[in-house]
């Protein structure tokens, strides 16, 4: 309890004092995880909706692949992106390894299956009569996808929150492709690992408190949007 209390005290000191390292790590966390979440939403939500409506040979294989990807370990995603961006890899010439861009790619790979899978489930959960009504009104396939996505907007917001939660809390992929470089690729999760490895547990607890507060603030905003839409 004494260690936790010290962590809270130090967290308050860091926040009130606007510690530069804390500010940079928090801003970079928001920047990288927020961008990765938006990328996964832009790619994953339409893919999930279209996959829910499409019927083609091999569809079950792709759905199972997406469901498997929802449990993708971050270190596996980090390893895959690292191999692609390594100097001898297919995209090594871009020199993206150990940059925020590489972290965005890795985190997008983590969130994409989750957003796609939950979007797929959200559209499939809609009443079958709704599909028939939309078709009877003469809507095109694209119009039907848009209308069904609007009807499933609340579960889609839940998918967005799940994707953000997955990437803002991961550490393995960020360490592998970002390198935890101070002032460049260090985010709150990697800073926590660094301070804990040094034995600075009070600082690590303080950073954890800031991370949880940040995640709560973002999810509070999304939850208010979700509940307002429900009302």
How would you characterize this protein structure?
With 231 residues, this protein is an all-alpha fold. It has one domain: MetI-like (MetI-like fold), CATH 1.10.3720. The protein has helices at 2-16, 20-53, 59-69, 74-85, 100-124, 128-136, 141-151, 153-168, 172-178, 188-197, 201-230. Helix 2 (20-53) packs parallel to helix 5 (100-124), helix 4 (74-85) packs across helix 5 (100-124) and helix 5 (100-124) runs antiparallel to helix 9 (172-178). The longest helix has 34 residues, at 20-53. The radius of gyration is 20 Å and the shape is globular. The N and C termini lie far apart (42 Å).
In short:
The chain has 231 residues and is an all-alpha fold.
What attributes does this structure have?
231 residues, mainly alpha, MetI-like fold
């Amino acid at each position: 309890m004494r260690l936790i209390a010290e962590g809270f005290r130090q967290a308050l000191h860091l926040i009130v004092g606007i510690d530069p390292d804390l500010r940079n790590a928090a801003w970079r966390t928001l920047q990288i995880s927020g961008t990765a979440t938006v990328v996964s939403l832009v790619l994953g939500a339409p893919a999930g909706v279209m996959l829910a409506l499409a019927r083609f040979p091999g569809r079950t294989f792709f759905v199972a692949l997406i469901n498997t990807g929802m449990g993708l370990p971050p270190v596996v995603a980090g390893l895959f992106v690292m191999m692609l961006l390594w100097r001898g890899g297919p995209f090594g010439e871009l020199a993206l390894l150990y940059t925020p861009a590489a972290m965005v790619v890795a985190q997008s790979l983590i969130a994409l299956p989750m957003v796609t899978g939950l979007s797929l489930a959200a559209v499939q959960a809609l009443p079958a009569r709704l599909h028939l009504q939309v078709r009877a009104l003469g809507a095109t396939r694209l119009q039907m996808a848009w209308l069904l996505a609007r009807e499933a907007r609340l579960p889609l917001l839940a998918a967005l929150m799940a994707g953000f939660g997955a990437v803002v809390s991961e550490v393995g992929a960020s360490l592998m492709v970002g390198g935890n470089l101070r002032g460049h690729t260090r985010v709150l999760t990697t800073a926590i690992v660094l301070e804990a490895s040094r034995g600075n547990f009070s600082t690590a607890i303080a950073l954890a408190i800031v991370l949880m507060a940040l995640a709560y603030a973002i999810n509070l905003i999304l939850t208010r949007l979700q509940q307002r839409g429900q009302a």
